[in-house]
Amino acid sequence: MLAALADARYEVPSPIQEGVIPLALDGKDVLGQARTGTGKTAAFSIPIIETLPEGKGPHALILVPTRELAVQVRDEIVKLSKGMSIQCVALYGGKPIRGQMDKLKRNPHIIVGTPGRVIDHMTRRSLNLDHLSTVVLDEADRMLDIGFRPDIEKILRRCPEDRQTMLLSATVPPPIERLANRYMRDPVKVDFSPTNISADTIEQRYFTVDGPKKMELLVRLLRREQPSKCIVFCRTKRGTEKLFQRLQKKTQLVRCIHGDLHQGARNRTISDFKANKYRILIATDVVGRGIDISDVTLIINYDVPEFSDDYVHRVGRTGRMGKEGVAYTFVTPEEGGQLTRIEMRIDKLLIRDEIEGFDPYLKTAVETGPPHARDTDPPEGEEPKEDPPKKTPRRRHRRAL
Predict the structure, then answer these.
(1) Which of 46, 108, 115, 320 sits in a 20 to 30 Å window from 136, CA-based?
(2) CDD domains in the record, alphabetically (predicted)?
(3) How far is 248 from 243, CA to CA, in rounded Å?
(4) How far apart are CA 280 and CA 244, in angstroms?
(5) 227-254, pLDDT tens digit by residue?
């Protein structure tokens, strides 16, 4: 293990690793809370590798919310078990189930999977959980958010009662607490979440801009920042694809990823991004959680996220493991309230930014009345009315204060 850690250039444990590893090695159930990018994967992987029992497997099951995270955790375990005779298999949708069934026949030591595909294999009797000694729920809050609770409970009920259970999560809302109380034995709680929900190493700013001018703002911002690695977040799959096609006309160093892409394409997109084959990744929230790309320097929220927690996880793709990063959010005049909710959630005011020479508003923005109200004289006996002032930026500024 020490040789594998040295080869991976892991020199000093992160706080979550320092807190979880000794407890896990002692066989205790652990409820660990820490934001993404702090080293949670190694915190549970190292104890699993170190305490694998002899005999027929699998001995450990790690449940994760997304396909990308399943691949990432599997790769981390392969890296940390270098030189050891340990087999790890990832089970997730989008890949032929027959190939996974063939790998399971070899009784691998460790299974990493999404709840839906794990249930599929349990139903087909290709996955036997009778010999499990450890179960891990990684990104547990995300799994509950996207509706995996029934599958998780079904899986846990099929696992041996004398297992060790570790639950790792960025947040611990009441549903997570109830899950822990029902399926864990006297769990030791460790909380390494900073008081400030968003990392201090992330500089967070926003632009006020009319919707039709966001593309121009994006191009100007990318030229100004010249990022080595940038993720641009959109709210919808269609919006992601549309923005990719438009930005591709400006640069070839851009790719996109969303739920409609088949799994092979998604895997290649992530691996090419890590390998610096392109600099800009346009994505939906499919990569907003759990994906570890440590050297992202710039995050751009092209669309304000629907939920404040999604903002936290988006900007968490930069500033990982103590590195510095910058996050920009494009806010239209109608989205001032959403920005205020984000600021309340992270207990921090975003800094307003501007690009010299760029007008963020459409020229017709102040012309809010119908044409006849602007172009004709007022009725006789009435005073002329002025066009309503362009008040959106000032209103947004007061709300933030």
Answers:
(1) 320
(2) DEADc, SF2_C_DEAD
(3) 8
(4) 10
(5) 999 999 999 999 999 999 999 999 889 9
Domain region containing 276? 202-363
Q: Go through the chain and tell me how many residues it has.
A: 401
What is the C-alpha separation between 24 and 172, in angstroms, rounded? 19
Q: What is the CATH number of the domain that holds 123?
A: 3.40.50.300
The pLDDT assigned to 270 comes to 86
- 218 in a structural domain: yes
CA distance 51 to 59: 10
Do 230 and 353 fall within a single domain? yes
DSSP state for residue 335 in the 8-state scheme: G
Which pairs from 71-74 meet CB under 8 Å and 24+ separation?
A: 71/267, 71/270, 72/41, 72/290, 72/291, 72/292, 73/41, 73/45, 73/112, 73/138, 74/112
Token pair, residue 397, equals 């500024």
For 19-58, give the DSSP string: HHHHHHHTT--EEEE--TTS-HHHHHHHHHHHTPPSSSS-
The shares of helix, strand and coil residues in the chain, as percent rounded to the nearest 5, are 40, 15, 45
Is residue 111 located within the same domain as residue 232? no
State residue 381's pLDDT score: 45
Q: Which two tokens stand for residue 115?
A: 């709840």
* CA–CA separation, 49 and 130 (whole Å): 19
Check residue 257 and report its DSSP letter: E
pLDDT tens digits, one per residue of 135-176: 999 988 888 877 889 999 999 999 999 999 999 987 787 888
